[in-house]
Structure formats: C-alpha cells, structure tokens
Amino acid sequence: MVIMIIFKVKKLLKKFVFSLQEEGWKPALKKTKRKVIKILTGKSSSEFEEQVLESAKLAEPRPLEIASSDNPLVSIIIPVYNQFAYTFNCLESLSVNLSSDLAYEVIIVNDASSDETLEQLATLVTGIKILTNAENSGFIRSCNYGASQAKGQYLYFLNNDTRILENCLESLVKLIINNPQVGAVGSKLIYANSKQQEAGGIIWNSADGWNYGRLDSPEEPEYNYVRPVDYCSGASLLVPTDLFKQLGGFCQDFIPAYYEDTDLCFALRELGYQVLYQPQSNVIHYEGITSGTDLSSGIKQYQVINQTKFREKWSKVLTKHLDNDANNVPKAARRLQGKPTILVIDSYVPLYDRESGCVRLLNILKLLLNLGYSVIFFPDNGYPEQPYTSVLQQMGIEVIYGTPQRYNLEEKLIKYLPLIDGVWLCRPELCDKYMDLIRLKTKAPIIYDTIDLHFLRLKRQKDYLDPSYQNTSWSWQTYQKLELNYANQAEATVVVTEDEKQVLSSLGVKNVWIIPNIHEEISLSEKVAFDQRAGLVFIGSYNHPPNIDAVKWLCLEIMPLVWASRPDITVNLLGSNLKDEVKELASNKVIVTGYVPEVEPYFQKSRVFVAPLRFGAGMKGKIGQSLSLGLPTITTKIGAEGMGLIDHQDVLIADTDEEFARAVIELYDHRELWQKLADNSLETIKRYQPATVQTNLQALLSNLGIIAKDS
Question: In Å, how far from its chain's centre is CA 293?
C-alpha cells in the first residue's frame, strides 16, 4: 500500500513538473488539483466542469459597463421581472465573455418589476437600453416589445437567470451566418451544478417536451455536435430579425409564456428553415428563478395550458414525431438529421493538416454530408484530438470518444450500432478488430476502405528499408491474406487507384470501387512567377516509412549530384512527426521545417516540388497537393502511380539518382517547361475534384442499397 502511494505521488509530481514547464503555473495547478481529488475521492472532474462551477457563483452587484454598439450586428434582448441579482450576473457574464470584435446592443425589457431592479440598473449599469412595461405583460409580450426596438440583424433572446460562457454568442452567430437556410440557433443549457439541462429539445407526437441529455454530463459526445433539432429553448436563442418579424414575433396565442419558443421553431421549419443546436454555445441556467417550477400555479401552469394549444395547432406535423418513450430518445434526438446513417471507423480523427490520407477521409465525410447522409465517426483511439474533432462536430458529424464518465469505447460503439445503416471501415487492422462485432450487432453493409494496399506497400518496402521501420509485426504475406479476407467479407471494397483495383481483381476480389484522393480547386491569392521562386520543397508525414526513405535518398544521394553544378539550390522538408534521422539531414542547403499549419506559402515560394518515392502504394496525396497548387513536380513511377500522369506532360518522372538529379536541373532552369507543367497540373487535377468523386461515391452507396434522401 505504501509503495503504491509513493509511486502515485512520484507520478503526480512528474506530471506537475512537465505541465509547469510546458503550460505554466495555472494549468499545472488545475490539472494537479483534479488528479489529487481523484486520488482522494475516486471522483474525477474536468476542466470544463470546474469552469462551470466557478462561473456559476453569483457575483455581488457593482458598477458595470456594457460595450454596446451604435451599429449592432446582434440585439441581445433580456426580459426581466424582479430578481436583480440574477439580472446583474447575466449582464456581468456578457461584459466578461463577449468578444470586442462582436458588435451588439443590450436591451433590457423591465416587465414592471416591483423590486430594486429598475433603480439598480439605472445606477450601476451603463451601455444598456432599458424598456419598461407599464404593467406586467409576461415573457412573450416583453420579448416582442424588445424585438420591435432592436437595431441588429439578429435577435438574441436571453433569460435573465443565466450566465453565458466564453464563445457563447459568437458561436451562434458564426453558425447562422455561414448557413443561410438556418432560421434559429440555440445553446447548450447547463445547471449551476455543472449537470446538463438540455442539448436541444425533443417534441413527442403528444406535444410533450423532452430535455435531451438532462442531468447527464454536458461533455458526452452525443451532446457536442451541431445538429437540427425540434426546438431550442428561448432561454438562449438567436434568430434573424427579418424572419422573426415575418412571423409576427413570438405567437401571442401562448401569452404569457411557454411553448412560444417551440412554436417559433416549428414555424421557421414550415418556412423551409432549419433550427440548429450549437454545442459550443454554453449557458448556465438557474432554471425557475422567475417563473418557479410548480406546474399547478403561477406562470408555470401555462406550460400545461399551452401544450394543449400547441398540440392542436401543429397536430398534422406532430404525426411525424415519435411516441413519448425513453427508448425512442436516441432516434428522436437525431430525427431531423440526414438519412441513412453511415458509421465511419478509422484509427483517429482526420488530422487533415498532417497526413494526406486524412485529407482524403475528411473530404469523403464532406461528400457524404453533401449527398444527404448522416455521419457518425468512431476513432479507434477514442481520443477527441483538437481542433480536428471540433471541425467534424461543427460540420454536423457525431464523433464517438471516451470521457472520464464513460470511457469504454466498445460499449459506446455497441450502443450506436442500432442507429447505423452502413459502415465505412478503414484499414485491415480495424477490420480485424471490429468486423465481427459489427456483423453480430447489425445487418448494415460494410464498405472496407483499404486506404492503400498495405501488403503491396510492405512488399515493395522490404527492398529499401530495414524491417524495424515497419509499424507492424505482420509480414506483407500476412497482410495480403488479411486484406483479401476482409475484402471478400465486405459488401464492397474501396481502393484509391485503378492499379490497385486491378491487383485485387486479379486476386479474385469482387465489387471493388475507386474512391481516390480528393483535391478541391485552390484559388491562390496571387500567382508567383518562375523567377520569383527558389528552392525545392517536399512534404509528408514522417510516421510513414516511404517518406523517410524519400528524403534520405533525396538529401544523401540525389542532391549531391545536383549540388556539384548547382550548389545554390536548397531543399525544404515540410511535414509532421519529424524523426531524428530526418532532423539530422539539416544543413545550410537542407532546411528541415517540419510541421506548418499553412503550407501554401511554402509551395508558393518554391520553384519545384520533389517526391522521390521508391516504394509505397495507393495514390500519393502530396502529388495531388502540388498539382492543385500549380507547382511543377518531379517524382518516380511509384509516386505517379494510379494518377495517369505523363512524363514531361504533367510531371517529370525519374527513377535513379542520376535521372532524378538531371530532372531537377532541367526543370529548375527551364522556364518554358516549368510553365507548361504548371498549367497542365491545374488541368490534370480536375479529374479528382469533389464533384467527380461524389458521383462515384453515390453510385457505390446506391449499389449497396444505402440511398440518401437527397440522392
């Protein structure tokens, strides 16, 4: 026991020192505090949970200045009836958390408060507009009055018994501006004890409401992606001003309050607009402060009365909704998403700025959404790496990952499988891990995405690299058996090139489809001329053995031949996951830059892209990237494989040290050849643009009977 305690203390101190060095005092102390609490109590807490608990503490009223704008984009409308302490804290959270880049105004509608509200607002708070009702008029009339006096393009209705967290309003605004067919966006509501109140609302066919995720952890993955919902609470709701006025505001049939927000959302949907839930918009809601919680008395009784009115008004629409049953919650929460649902399984979330295979997968996910499918992504490592996970979630893709509360990934996957209509399963290792489980739990067809033919890559690799470079203990022969086995078990197999399709077909695999790398047309801010460029550039992930071999061959064998006559030509090595042996290549002529978030500036200033790949398989994303940027390329037959590239027409192709060195000098010094390849590369890459690939993807899914509503 004592030994274990000493071990845990040493481990804790080691992590504290590391965090202190890398992140500073505050993050180190916070993380250490959470770990100490977990050791002492067995309970874990997250940084987000601590943030909510800290933010939920009510501050004492004090002088407060709100930075309102005379030309607001958003009008924040806060109806108020008594409870000044909560109103002050609502306003204080706005002053603390709203970005100075957001132009807004704050309109307080004082609904004939009988306490110190009006006096205190006038005394303590500047920068707000105060409207006062002569008599208590209720939530609906107060909101509509505030809206009538608003100057913003958007109306943000906010309860006074709330505190917003950072990025709350900005995330709502960004989502609605980027999606013209969205009529309203609502927030995640969280109780002051850090438990969830709701993550978008469900309406059953009986017109009963259901707070999705109530009392669960707000950090669970099912509550953290953008999705269309039946309604979002008017406690925090953003609506375009013109649409709100077009509908006549909140319907006065529901005066004084309740169901008016739900009715508005239904009316917007009837006009053809979506109502979206934005999980990045977090609001602490001290529910019931103004209206209470007793359904049999006071304002709260209108929740029951107005439910009947709502049911009668929307009776035809409600027939499409599900029965009020807890077992129906998963389907009801996703009712308005695209159908059918595709589960995509890969090793990790797409690291789109680090690996070309991840760029391809991200583009496939985008195409699935374009075709009208709902997408759920399952990273085998269970890790919601950022910003990559948030990118998917903001696209409307649900990402399954482990949390401190629920960390068993297999249990989570099993829970989701009844919702699935098709599975896109990447890599033979993941087929080995998940195919039997999927077959056991669902009849959904499986598409096996090879990414590249692993056995082919490993077979070629053995002639150039030591076996220690392999990221697996399996031989190429083992991979071949496995890949053929899973290709034959799956309803369809996906490869990235015609060459690989022919390989599998020759080995007896049926129903093979080509879904290549996808390259969007890139609009460059400026075209840099030949004589304004200098140097060679390479990019790749150095977790991938072919890339390590390529740069070593380039720098140690090819470039010395080039430097013999052209010592001025430099090489820049870009890419993630730098290894020591790559770093050791650095010199006054070889710049090892490594990972950069934006590669275009480097491509724009370089004269030639080089990809001396001696082995590998599949379509090489780096080649497609250089072509899409109009950067003339020199590669090998392996590098050009599967893309139909012609030597001296699209690229230069060379396979020996001497040939490659001559090609570098030839292309580097000849403006006409350089311009020819630059022009042709932009034309060549068009065959891999999204629209072209989307047609083939749609045909594949239709072939398996997985037909989206928009297909």
Answer: 37
Number of domains in the chain: 4
| pLDDT on residue 207 | 95
Q: Which residues lie across from 188 on neighbouring strands?
A: 282
Residues 703-707, mean pLDDT to the nearest whole number:
95
pTM: 0.86
AA letter at 20: L
Do 553 and 673 fall within a single domain?
yes
Q: Which residue has the tokens 């000098």?
A: 665
* SS3 readout for 170-215: HHHHHHHHCCCCEEEEEEEEECCCCCEEECCEEECCCCCEEECCCC
User: pLDDT-derived band of residue 575, with 50, 70 and 90 as boundaries?
Assistant: very high
Q: What is the CATH number of the domain that holds 378?
A: 3.40.50.2000
Express each pLDDT in 381-431 by its tens digit: 999 999 999 999 999 999 999 988 888 999 999 999 999 999 999 999 999
Residue 20 has pLDDT above 80, yes or no: no
Q: How confident is the model at residue 476 (pLDDT cuts 50, 70, 90)?
A: confident
Instruction: Find the domain containing 268 and state its range.
Output: 64-333
Q: Which of 173, 356, 345 is nearest to 276 (CA)?
A: 173
Asked whether the beta carbons of 206 and 160 are under 8 A apart, the reply is no
Q: Left if phi > 0, otherwise alpha if psi is -120 to 50, otherwise beta: which for 594?
A: left
Host H or E run for residue 706: none
Terminal CA-to-CA distance of the chain, rounded, Å?
62
For residue 416, being part of any structural domain is answered with yes
d(CA 87, CA 508): 71
Q: Tell whether 705 is covered by a domain.
A: no
CB 480 within 8 A of CB 458: no
| Confidence at residue 711, expressed as pLDDT on a 0 to 100 scale | 43
Task: Decide if 188 is inside a domain.
Answer: yes
Q: What is the distance between the alpha carbons of residues 229 and 227, in angstroms, rounded to a whole number?
A: 6
Farthest CA pair distance, the chain: 92
For helices 409-416 and 428-441, angle between their N-to-C axes, nearest 10 degrees: 50
- 629 in Cβ contact with 606 (< 8 Å): no
Q: What angle do CA 197, 377, 505 make, to 5 degrees?
A: 165
Q: Which two tokens stand for residue 588?
A: 């006054």
Of the candidates 390, 411, 616, the one whose C-alpha atom is nearest the C-alpha of residue 499 is 616
Residue 437 located in a structural domain: yes
> pLDDT, tens digit, for every residue of 640-679?
988 889 999 999 999 999 999 999 999 999 999 999 999 9
